[in-house]
Amino acid sequence: DQQVKQNSPSLSVQEGRISILNCDYTNSMFDYFLWYKKYPAEGPTFLISISSIKDKNEDGRFTVFLNKSAKHLSLHIVPSQPGDSAVYFCAADYQGGKLIFGQGTELSVKP
Amino acid sequence: DVKVTQSSRYLVKRTGEKVFLECVQDMDHENMFWYRQDPGLGLRLIYFSYDVKMKEKGDIPEGYSVSREKKERFSLILESASTNQTSMYLCASNSLTGERNEQFFGPGTRLTVL
């Protein structure tokens, strides 16, 4: 039972445009969400997070939106750059300290 | 900077071999985790540890065991490697007092079982 789902395995965007990566979850007890970025042959690195008491968190070009009623979060990257090409994982807090990850979305930003 | 290191980047083993994957973190983190990453399945938690000599099963512990004798070191053991354990293995750590639940990952070990 996949509690965190990223339904788009891949996304292709033109440089300078907006990238929107989506994530859905099923467990209403999740209260903290994170996005990780992963390059090939490297470990994931933390990108941005959001608490369930907020609906938006922004850090530079990256913004995460949370819609609790829809159990949906999204990551916006504006403007997208070729260096943003990577696999993006969303993750939900589960039993304090443990994370449940989605399947990942591979973003390709074309020059 | 937080550093999580893994003993090998690439490993090739034979079916039935005992395999040890080592992970070391230098930030005095209480929590350590082992995941495997497979295409289309994301990161799945194998085992985690909240303290020295303590371990708990994650979502897919079958075929694996772990050891945490020192706070900085967390080992994943494949008792008898099988081809379905071919995967990318990722170690992570975090602190109960740090940024809430942000986990720091090592570079990963790509294990191939023939």
Low-confidence stretches of chain A: none
> pLDDT below 50 for ≥5 consecutive residues: which ranges of chain B?
none
Arithmetic mean pLDDT of chain A? 94
- Molecular shape of chain B: globular
In DSSP terms (H or I, runs of 4 or more residues), the helix count of chain A works out at 0
The helical percent of chain A reads under 10%
What is the count of helical runs of chain B? 0
Structural notes for this entry:
The complex is a heterodimer of chains A (111) and B (114). Chain A has no helices and 11 strands. Chain A has strands at residues 4-5, 10-14, 19-25, 32-38, 45-51, 56-59, 62-67, 72-77, 86-94, 98-101, 105-110. In chain A, 39% of the residues are buried. Chain B has 114 residues and is an all-beta fold. Helix content of chain B is 0%, strand content 53%. Chain B has strands at residues 4-6, 10-13, 19-25, 31-38, 42-49, 56-57, 64-70, 73-78, 87-94, 104-105, 109-113. In chain B, the strands form 2 sheets. In chain B, strands 2, 4, 5, 6, 9, 10 and 11 form a 7-stranded mixed sheet that branches. In chain B, strands 1-3-8-7 form a 4-stranded antiparallel sheet, with no helix packed on it. Chain B starts with a strand and ends with a strand. At the A-B interface, strand 4, strand 5, strand 9 and strand 10 of A face strand 4, strand 5, strand 9 and strand 10 of B.
